[in-house]
Predict the 3D structure of the following.
Amino acid sequence: MLDVKDFFPGDDEKINQLLRFTAEVDKMTAIKRRTMLIDGSRRENDAEHSWHIALMAMLFKDYAPEGCDVSRAACMCIVHDLVEIYAGDTFAYDDAANVGKEERERIAADKLFSELPSEIALEFRSLWEEFDAMDTPDSKYAAAMDRLQPYLHNTLTEGHTWKEGNPSIEQVNRRMSPALECIPEVRNWYEENIKRAVEKGWLRKE
């Protein structure tokens, strides 16, 4: 966490905790993802990704599943990658890097959320765990946004991360299944872009 000597506190300890945490999570801007910005200038960071999918949750609200609280799902989008401040980002198509990911992120969550006031720590931890479980309408919708955004970027950056990770169509389909199940209306767009990616050599068939 932020070194205490760098923070000049006030007399309200809860306010001090919240301000320290706010400063600490600025580190998300330094966590680089594999996804390329659409303008092709650089890779996006975790903070940009989280903002983007939270905005998408608002944009696609007409397609949210029954029983979904869109505002809560947007909050989940903001929280879901906070643990990567300590655990780092793990590339979806790197099997070796994914070994031990759950344990690394659990340890990171223990460290990060313990710095919050207890009631807020519980709220953030619950949102993070629910997102990973993907077993509620809110978490399924948030996860759909998390999968749609990098897919969209791939279609607009000549398959940048696909060419890096070299996944098969089957692997991409498996990765994208939460989005397609949650929002079936995107399936035609999805399939047309899969065909295009294969034709252009961005994605392999087998």
The CA atoms of residues 155 and 193 lie 7 Å apart. The two ends are 45 Å apart (CA to CA).
